[in-house]
Write a structure and sequence with these properties.
Order of helices and strands: HHHHH
Number of helices: 5
Number of strands: 0
Helix content: 55-70%
Radius of gyration: 14 Å
Length: about 100
């Protein structure tokens, strides 16, 4: 049986997270992105809301990318003001090198 597009990536992150618990947050972010792409926006947003506090800017890899994916899910769910606020906060905290 073939796996669904994107589901393998989520399983790969989960497998890696079992060996390295610090990766669990990235497995959750991958799951949220997958759900968002499938149109399961409420579930995706719920996971992103749980993930974001654990991915502070400048302390974790891909923090800005996860925020951008969250903003995309918010926009898809017609929560445009939340998406805009999230990205403005993200850009405001970015350094010139970023």
């Amino acid at each position: 049986m073939r796996s669904k597009p994107g589901s393998r990536s989520c399983r790969d992150w989960r497998s890696s997270a079992a060996d390295a618990p610090a990766l669990e947050i990235y497995a959750d972010a991958a799951q949220a992105a997958y759900l968002g792409m499938r149109g399961e926006l409420d579930r995706a947003i719920e996971i992103y809301e749980r993930v974001l506090p654990k991915l502070p800017m400048h302390e974790r890899v891909a923090a800005a990318s996860v925020r951008a994916s969250f903003a995309a899910a918010l926009n898809a769910a017609s929560q445009h003001q939340r998406a805009k606020t999230l990205m403005l906060e993200t850009l405001a905290s970015a350094t010139p090198e970023e």
